[in-house]
Design a protein that fits this description.
The protein is mainly β. The protein has no helices and 12 strands.
Length: 146
Amino acid sequence: MWSLKRCKRWSGLLTKARGALRRCAAGSGADDETVEFVRSPVDVTVTEGEDASFECELRGSPATTTRSSSVSWYKDDDLIPADDDDFRQSFDGRVAQLYIAGTYVDDAGVYTCTATSSDRQRAASIAATLVVNGRLTLHAPSAPTT
Protein backbone atom coordinates (compact mmCIF):
# COMPACT_ATOMS: atom_id res chain seq x y z
CA MET A 1 0.00 0.00 0.00
CA TRP A 2 1.33 3.45 -0.88
CA SER A 3 0.28 6.72 0.69
CA LEU A 4 0.88 10.34 -0.13
CA LYS A 5 1.21 11.01 3.58
CA ARG A 6 4.69 9.46 3.44
CA CYS A 7 5.95 12.19 1.14
CA LYS A 8 3.79 15.20 1.94
CA ARG A 9 6.82 17.37 2.64
CA TRP A 10 8.07 16.90 -0.92
CA SER A 11 5.76 18.76 -3.31
CA GLY A 12 5.85 17.36 -6.83
CA LEU A 13 8.01 14.35 -5.94
CA LEU A 14 7.66 11.38 -8.25
CA THR A 15 7.94 8.00 -6.58
CA LYS A 16 8.22 4.62 -8.25
CA ALA A 17 6.46 1.84 -6.37
CA ARG A 18 4.95 -1.38 -7.72
CA GLY A 19 6.11 -0.42 -11.21
CA ALA A 20 4.03 2.74 -11.55
CA LEU A 21 4.75 6.40 -10.98
CA ARG A 22 2.75 8.07 -8.25
CA ARG A 23 2.88 11.80 -7.71
CA CYS A 24 3.11 13.27 -4.24
CA ALA A 25 1.72 16.68 -3.34
CA ALA A 26 2.38 18.73 -0.25
CA GLY A 27 0.05 18.63 2.72
CA SER A 28 -0.30 21.22 5.43
CA GLY A 29 -0.92 19.24 8.61
CA ALA A 30 -1.64 16.00 10.44
CA ASP A 31 -5.38 16.18 9.71
CA ASP A 32 -4.87 16.40 5.95
CA GLU A 33 -6.92 14.17 3.73
CA THR A 34 -4.63 11.62 2.09
CA VAL A 35 -5.07 10.09 -1.33
CA GLU A 36 -4.05 6.46 -1.50
CA PHE A 37 -4.47 3.58 -3.95
CA VAL A 38 -5.24 0.26 -2.31
CA ARG A 39 -5.73 -1.65 -5.58
CA SER A 40 -3.81 -0.96 -8.77
CA PRO A 41 -4.98 -1.41 -12.34
CA VAL A 42 -3.33 -4.33 -14.13
CA ASP A 43 -1.74 -4.38 -17.57
CA VAL A 44 -4.13 -5.64 -20.25
CA THR A 45 -3.46 -7.35 -23.59
CA VAL A 46 -6.30 -7.74 -26.10
CA THR A 47 -6.78 -8.41 -29.78
CA GLU A 48 -8.09 -5.52 -31.85
CA GLY A 49 -11.88 -5.37 -31.58
CA GLU A 50 -12.02 -6.82 -28.06
CA ASP A 51 -13.07 -4.74 -25.06
CA ALA A 52 -10.58 -3.63 -22.41
CA SER A 53 -10.99 -2.15 -18.94
CA PHE A 54 -8.92 -0.79 -16.07
CA GLU A 55 -9.94 -0.52 -12.44
CA CYS A 56 -8.29 0.93 -9.36
CA GLU A 57 -9.45 1.45 -5.80
CA LEU A 58 -8.83 4.41 -3.52
CA ARG A 59 -8.89 4.93 0.18
CA GLY A 60 -8.91 8.42 1.67
CA SER A 61 -8.45 9.71 5.16
CA PRO A 62 -10.84 10.53 6.61
CA ALA A 63 -12.94 8.03 4.64
CA THR A 64 -15.97 10.32 4.41
CA THR A 65 -14.06 12.84 2.31
CA THR A 66 -13.12 10.23 -0.30
CA ARG A 67 -16.52 10.68 -1.89
CA SER A 68 -15.64 14.26 -2.80
CA SER A 69 -12.28 13.29 -4.31
CA SER A 70 -12.09 13.36 -8.07
CA VAL A 71 -10.57 10.97 -10.58
CA SER A 72 -9.26 11.64 -14.08
CA TRP A 73 -7.96 9.17 -16.65
CA TYR A 74 -5.12 9.86 -19.10
CA LYS A 75 -3.82 8.01 -22.15
CA ASP A 76 -0.14 8.63 -22.78
CA ASP A 77 -0.33 11.81 -20.63
CA ASP A 78 -3.34 13.20 -22.55
CA LEU A 79 -6.53 13.76 -20.53
CA ILE A 80 -9.44 11.55 -21.59
CA PRO A 81 -12.53 13.78 -21.44
CA ALA A 82 -15.25 12.37 -19.19
CA ASP A 83 -17.75 12.64 -22.06
CA ASP A 84 -15.55 10.85 -24.63
CA ASP A 85 -17.71 8.40 -26.61
CA ASP A 86 -14.87 5.89 -27.01
CA PHE A 87 -14.07 5.59 -23.30
CA ARG A 88 -16.62 5.02 -20.53
CA GLN A 89 -15.53 6.23 -17.08
CA SER A 90 -17.07 5.69 -13.67
CA PHE A 91 -16.11 6.53 -10.09
CA ASP A 92 -18.21 5.72 -7.03
CA GLY A 93 -15.97 7.41 -4.45
CA ARG A 94 -13.78 4.32 -4.03
CA VAL A 95 -13.50 2.40 -7.31
CA ALA A 96 -12.53 4.12 -10.56
CA GLN A 97 -13.11 2.31 -13.84
CA LEU A 98 -12.23 2.98 -17.45
CA TYR A 99 -13.89 0.84 -20.14
CA ILE A 100 -12.86 0.77 -23.79
CA ALA A 101 -15.34 -0.96 -26.10
CA GLY A 102 -14.05 -2.44 -29.35
CA THR A 103 -10.37 -1.52 -29.12
CA TYR A 104 -8.24 -0.37 -32.03
CA VAL A 105 -4.47 -0.71 -32.35
CA ASP A 106 -4.27 3.07 -31.74
CA ASP A 107 -5.78 2.53 -28.26
CA ALA A 108 -2.55 0.86 -27.11
CA GLY A 109 -0.57 2.90 -24.59
CA VAL A 110 -0.13 3.81 -20.95
CA TYR A 111 -3.36 4.61 -19.08
CA THR A 112 -3.03 6.62 -15.88
CA CYS A 113 -5.61 7.11 -13.17
CA THR A 114 -5.08 10.31 -11.18
CA ALA A 115 -7.00 10.88 -7.96
CA THR A 116 -7.16 14.34 -6.42
CA SER A 117 -8.24 15.16 -2.87
CA SER A 118 -11.38 17.20 -2.34
CA ASP A 119 -9.30 20.23 -1.31
CA ARG A 120 -7.17 19.75 -4.47
CA GLN A 121 -3.99 19.87 -2.38
CA ARG A 122 -2.98 16.23 -2.86
CA ALA A 123 -2.96 13.87 -5.82
CA ALA A 124 -1.75 10.38 -6.62
CA SER A 125 -1.38 8.66 -9.96
CA ILE A 126 -1.07 5.04 -10.94
CA ALA A 127 -0.65 3.56 -14.41
CA ALA A 128 -1.14 0.38 -16.43
CA THR A 129 -0.40 -0.52 -20.02
CA LEU A 130 -2.81 -1.59 -22.75
CA VAL A 131 -1.39 -3.73 -25.55
CA VAL A 132 -3.65 -4.17 -28.58
CA ASN A 133 -2.56 -6.87 -30.99
CA GLY A 134 -3.69 -6.35 -34.56
CA ARG A 135 -5.89 -8.90 -36.23
CA LEU A 136 -4.14 -11.16 -38.66
CA THR A 137 -6.22 -11.69 -41.77
CA LEU A 138 -5.20 -14.46 -44.12
CA HIS A 139 -6.34 -14.39 -47.69
CA ALA A 140 -6.31 -17.48 -49.83
CA PRO A 141 -4.38 -16.94 -53.04
CA SER A 142 -6.51 -16.45 -56.08
CA ALA A 143 -6.60 -19.23 -58.63
CA PRO A 144 -4.63 -18.28 -61.70
CA THR A 145 -6.74 -17.41 -64.68
CA THR A 146 -5.86 -18.86 -68.03
